[in-house]
Amino acid sequence: MTTLCAVPCQFLGLKIPIYHSVLVDQRCSRAIHHCDVCNVVQRLESGAAIVCKSIHYGVCQPVAIPPTKARIIKKREEKATAKVSPHSPPAKPQLSPQPKVADQLSPQPKVVTEVKPTTSATPSPKSDPPNPAPSGASIPRFYFPLGQPVSDDGKELKKVSEVFGTMKEGKAYKNDFGEVAKVCSCPLYWKGPLFLAAGGDKLGCVTSASFQPMWKRIIQKYHDDYSRFMAIMTRMKRSYLTADDFVPLIQDVIDTHPGLTFLQEAQEFHSRYLHTVIARIFYTVNRSWSGQITIPELRKSNLLQVISSLEEEDDINQITDFFSYEHFYVIYCKFWELDTDHDLFISQQDLARHNDGAISSRMAERIFSGAVTRGSTVSREGKMSYTEFVWFLLAEEDKKHPTAIEYWFRCMDLDGDGLLSMYELEYFYEEQYNKMVSLGIEPMPFEDCLCQMLDMINPTIPGKITLRDLKQSRMTPLFFDTFFNLEKYLDHEQRDPFAAAKEAEDMEGMSDWERYAAEEYEMLVADETMPGQDDVFDDDVLESAEVRRVTRADMEEADYDYTGA
């Protein structure tokens, strides 16, 4: 038998004040009551009272005026306005009467009902509008697409005349144009294009009489370095730069820079190096993918700063932007391994052998489909040119670069709608999934992979990834590798986070491309100098641009035309 123990209990009760005809407003948890003694009660002409029906805090403190009362107040204001004489002073604003003593003791905030003042024909002096601006005032010019004009007193032209006076017969040849460029406040390696812009290609020399009119037109119309560079490179014919415009400048660097003297002995490598530099310039500077570099794109890039640094740095490899010979060496060796027939074009089957098939076949199909074709020039059908391979390798090894993100986004956007949908992600992941199964690796289901990628990128549109999302994310390289580069994806998954952090700290200040190029260059040099090889290259041969045990006779080919496509 169960014994029940008496437990002392305490009854709690709450006192709730009850008003007459109380209605509870659940939204505000306040009482709405009919108050006949409220200080906002209005009476009609017949004497009947109108209940306020306003929200109260419990002590008849009104905090809102019901619609019925608001309409009555508005009508009274209209009547009062109609009776006012047009010459009478403006009526004072009418305020609601002060609350009673009991209302003043209430701790709740008071809300005063304000009535709009009546208008009058005689405006108040304080309400006069400010004086309008004079009609003849003009806004100073603030947009200078060719640079802000600077006063010129003719001193620069006088210096130019003096320089030509020191030369034999007053003629400046191509080798002498460095002095002319410096007098014109131009970087040293503008001298080649400057010589051609002055008509030096016609007679082989330039005189003061032919140079000064040209330079006078430039300084009068173009007022900053970017616009003058454009005018000199295009001979004042266009407002954009094409790939061919850079040939004289880079050829002059090859011929005269102290860090490339060894390259003068290997003439067949001049065009390879030249077109590599041009491709890298357009990869970084031409953000519009048009194949035409404009003045705004020049201003947003560091191209002119890099060209200026060429005269200060004798070691060309220290200039990692655009001009490094070691970077050219790595790029050309990678291309030469794939170009079996050495016609400077590779097929989709050739690209499939890159890094032992690291790129998926579906992605290779997208690359050759024209998704990343630049400009309006179309290359040989079904083939990738050398300059296109330069873009591919730069994008593959540094997926943090803005152009690389655009490159791979174009490839993955199958329908071209500017969004990466779940269908498109599944299309590329399916091949990666099958590869992992064939290698005996337990793959992640697509649903789990999709959740992981969405959490990692955090797109603004749920379920769809935009180009902006990828540019804002720091995990974009892993995102791309997950869908078309299995080798790098597995490397990400198996990498020790502490070792990766230490490596990033050691390589601080270097881009992913610079890190890759440095490692590959060391490996290539080591391969060439290994004993026991049939063709062993010493350092002198390597520095003279003999690439990858390839003889000069093997690499002699027909003239190669650069294509911006």
Can you walk me through this structure?
This protein is mainly α and 565 residues long. Strand 3 (42-43) and strand 4 (49-50) form a beta hairpin. Among the domains are: 155-318, Recoverin, domain 1 (Orthogonal Bundle); 325-526, Recoverin, domain 1, CATH 1.10.238. The chain starts with 22 loop residues before the first strand and ends in a 22-residue tail after the last helix. The strands form 5 sheets. Strands 1-2-5 form a 3-stranded antiparallel sheet, with no helix packed on it. The protein has a two-stranded antiparallel ribbon with strand order 3-4. It has 25 helices and 11 strands. Helix 5 (191-197) crosses helix 9 (247-256), helix 10 packs across helix 16 and helix 13 (325-338) crosses helix 24. Mean pLDDT is 78; it is low at 1-7, 9-34, 56-63, 90-127 and 533-565.
Largest β-sheet summary: 3 strands, antiparallel
Shape from CA axes?
flat
CATH superfamily of the domain at 325-526: EF-hand
What is the CA-CA span between the terminal residues? 96 Å
Structural class: mainly alpha
Strand order of the largest sheet: 1-2-5
Overall radius of gyration: 40 Å
Q: Segments where pLDDT lies below 50 for 5+ residues? A: 1-7, 9-34, 56-63, 90-127, 533-565
CATH architecture field of the domain at 325-526: Orthogonal Bundle
Portion of residues in beta strands equals: under 5%
